[in-house]
Design brief:
Blueprint: E1 5-11, E2 15-22, E3 27-34, H1 38-58, E4 68-73, H2 79-90, E5 98-102, H3 103-111, E6 117-122, E7 126-131, E8 137-141, H4 144-147, H5 153-169, H6 177-184, H7 193-197, H8 204-208, H9 211-219, H10 223-246, E9 253-258, H11 260-263, H12 266-278, E10 283-285, H13 292-303, H14 310-326
Parallel strand pairs: 1-4, 4-5, 6-9, 9-10
Antiparallel strand pairs: 1-2, 2-3, 6-7, 7-8
Helix pairs in contact: 3-13, 5-6, 5-9, 5-10, 9-10, 10-12
Length: 327
């Protein structure tokens, strides 16, 4: 077994995936377990889940500890949190070195296989990250539902509810969202929405889950839904444009959609690209090349100062295909 190995970890709120790889691109192990959002479990919870995932690998007779473990974790976007994670895990002796990043950072690394480009993440929340040809990376958005999250599922779902209520009051135009969203939230009349939003079951995640209905009505030609989609797409496009300009990628860069909202809707992505062109930003949309867990693997090698050749990255493509089949 190659002595120079690394482990990449992708930890979210619902599940955690770890991949163990050798420097030549050989896959040594894949493990999956429960969620590891750092804000929910802290360092104690993180050690527990990693012990469950990595313990069986590292307990094998004759196995050398990996040269680096890189973790991309939800809830670990600030440097203070990342330092605490590194310090807490180094004492476990699971690897010679530890690197901690946000899950968005490892997603960016995977999206373009460590190369230059941007990733627009739009699910319940939203964020745009980019990496320049010189290896510099910046972000825009990701400020949460009160301060930002433009173009997210929550943003679109909430806009849809507001439009339906405006139609109910007569202060806004008629829209099919009035009936569609009323049915989606399983209510007979809009008067019941207030207690369900303020302290009830219409949480941020439930509101975000309404976005597909808004997208469907927009594709069907509902003018109000189309306006909502255009505004949401414009919000994401402004973030992509800001990152592209800061990284000198605005005329020949690549962007990859990530997150359930944009990956499931080519129609929404097309609206984003329309908004980008209106701002004079010319980008090529590409699919995400590698999943975040392999982005973590790439960042682990980067931390060790080891550049991977074309043969290894081609092997990573094959591993990515295998991981997608098993997902």
């Amino acid at each position: 077994m190659n002595a120079k190995t690394v482990i990449g970890v992708d930890g979210g709120g619902s599940n955690t995936r770890a991949v163990w790889m050798g420097q030549s691109g050989e896959l040594l192990g894949v493990a999956e377990g429960r969620g590891s959002n750092y804000q929910e479990g802290g360092i104690v919870g993180l050690k527990e889940i990693l012990g469950e995932l990595l313990g069986p690998w590292l307990a094998q007779a004759g196995v050398q500890p990996p040269a680096c473990i890189c973790l991309g974790l939800a809830g670990a976007g600030r440097s203070a949190e990342q330092r605490a994670i590194v310090e807490g895990l180094e004492e476990m002796g699971w690897a010679e070195s530890v690197r901690a990043e946000s899950d968005a950072r490892t997603a960016l690394a995977g999206a373009h296989a460590g190369g230059a480009g941007m990733i627009a993440i739009a699910g319940t929340g939203s964020m745009v990250l980019g990496c320049s040809r010189r290896g510099e990376w910046v972000r825009a958005g990701g400020w949460g539902p009160i301060l930002g999250d433009e173009g997210s599922g929550y943003d679109i779902g909430l806009r849809g509810i507001r439009a339906a209520l405006a139609a109910h009051d007569g202060s806004g135009p008629k829209t099919r969202l009035y009936e569609t969203l009323l049915e989606a939230v399983e209510m007979e009349a809009w008067e019941g929405v207030v207690p369900r939003v303020y302290g009830g079951d219409l949480t941020r995640a439930r509101l975000a889950a309404l976005a597909p209905q808004v997208l469907q009505e927009a594709q069907g030609g509902d003018r109000v839904a189309l306006d909502i989609l255009s505004e949401a797409a414009g919000g994401i496009a402004r973030q992509i444009a800001a990152v592209a300009r800061r990284l000198d990628l605005a005329k020949d860069g690549y962007w990859a959609p990530s997150g359930g909202l944009v990956t499931a809707s080519a129609f929404f992505c097309e609206r984003i690209e329309d908004a980008l062109r209106s701002q004079g930003v010319l980008l090529t949309r590409v699919p995400v090349r590698l999943p975040p867990v392999l982005g973590a693997v790439l960042l682990a090698w980067e931390a060790l100062g080891i550049a991977l050749d074309r043969v290894v990255t081609d092997k990573l493509d094959a591993v990515a295909s295998e991981l997608r089949r098993d997902a």
